[in-house]
């Protein structure tokens, strides 16, 4: 689903902020450790992929915050009704990653089934983006499952004023009594402030605790 509404800048509450940070093309990112102890246990008990479960909850959390759903379309600022995830997967033979995407995230079990089908269908791909044209309303999700990082940074210099949220997760590790997962999110300051990122992490933690 790629429904959206065009934002009227004349009445847009954060117009001054939008125009200021568009002019400077300012992005920022934050990394927070999320307690996934309950989520890991749930995935083991129900024989579901932790990565698929994370993709579901990351996307669900992003979609609850309108500021993370803004984008540019036809040279206009728009708000998508919902975002769908693109996610990276790893080809063990070539040691290269590739990007897939999911739609219809109705519940985590259906996402798990579709995820497992996709990675099986494209297991031997040598393309970076082997699926058909990627939807315009996406949140980009990447995984670095070999590393428990303190911070992660990426810079897509060729694309100016890109409002698409970019999320990177690492490997969870046991710290005290918790299993902590590093989650990094990169956003554009024209439409997103630290407040909205804090909301995202609060919502994500609650979703992972279900």
N- and C-termini, Cα separation: 26 Å
Low-confidence stretches: none
Spell the H/E element sequence: EHEHHEEEEHEEEEH
Helix content: 25-40%
Q: Sum up the overall morphology in one term.
A: globular
Number of separate strands: 10
Largest sheet: 7 strands, mixed
Structural class: alpha+beta
Approximate strand percentage: 25-35%
Query: How large, in whole angstroms, is the Cα Rg?
Result: 17 Å
Task: Tag the structure with descriptive keywords.
single chain; 210 residues; alpha+beta; 3-stranded antiparallel sheet; 5 helices; 10 strands; globular
Task: Tell me what you see in this structure.
It is built from 5 helices and 10 strands; from the N terminus they run E-H-E-H-H-E-E-E-E-H-E-E-E-E-H. The protein is of the alpha+beta class. Strands 2, 5, 6, 7, 8, 9 and 10 form a 7-stranded mixed sheet that branches. It has a 3-stranded antiparallel sheet with strand order 1-4-3, with no helix packed on it. The longest helix has 15 residues, at 194-208. The protein is globular, with a radius of gyration of 17 Å. It starts with a strand and ends with a helix.
What's the SSE blueprint?
Layout (H helix, E strand, L loop, with lengths): L3 E3 L8 H10 L2 E9 L1 H10 L3 H14 L6 E4 L2 E5 L3 E8 L4 E6 L6 H14 L16 E6 L22 E4 L3 E3 L2 E11 L5 H15 L2
Parallel strand pairs: 5-7, 7-8
Antiparallel strand pairs: 1-4, 2-10, 3-4, 5-6, 8-10, 9-10
Helix pairs in contact: 3-4, 3-5
